[in-house]
Amino acid sequence: MSYLPRSSLVTLGMLLIFAYVIYEAAGKPMQAKLFPMTVGILGLVLISIQLGRELWTAWRTDETQADRKTNQQDGAADFAITDVEKSRIGRLRAAEQFCWLAGLLLGLFLIGFYISVPLMVGLYLWRHQERPMFVIAMSAGVAAVVWGVFNQLLNLPFPQGLILEWLS
Fold first, then answer.
1. Contact status, residue 121 vs residue 130, Cβ threshold 8 Å
2. Is the pTM of this model over 0.70?
3. Where are the bilayer-spanning segments (predicted)?
4. CA distance linking residue 20 with residue 40, whole number of Å
C-alpha cells in the first residue's frame, strides 16, 4: 500500500506553493502581505483538507480495488473524459475557455485590473446571451466591488496596465 497516491502529487505541489506564498509574505509590511497572506492561508487550508481526503481514501481502499478502478477509467486517475469532451464541440468549448482566460490575462497586462475584470464579466455574460440590463448591472457591480475593496478598503492600488500608462 502506497502512502501517497500518484494522483495526490498535484495536491501536494499546490500545498507547497501555498506554504511558500505564506512564507514569503510573512516578512513584508502589512499592506504588502495582506492579499498574499489571505489567499495563501485560505488556499493552504482548502488544499490541506483535500490532501487529507485523498490520503484517507487511499488508506481505506485496498490496492487491488484501486488498480481495478484506475484501469476501468483508461488511465485517468482523477476523472474520465467523456465522448462529448473528445468531440469537435468539446474541443471548441475547451479552446473557448482557454481564450477567455488568456484574454483576461492579456487585459490585466494591457489595461489593468480595475478595467479588465468588469469588462471580462460583461463580455462573458454578453457572449452567453444574458439580458443587456443584467450585463450592465453585473459589470457595474463587479467594478464597484473591485474598486471599493482593493483600492478604497484595502488600499492596494493595482498597476494601470501598459496602454493606460502610455496614454498618461
1. no
2. no
3. 6-23, 35-52, 100-126, 133-150
4. 8
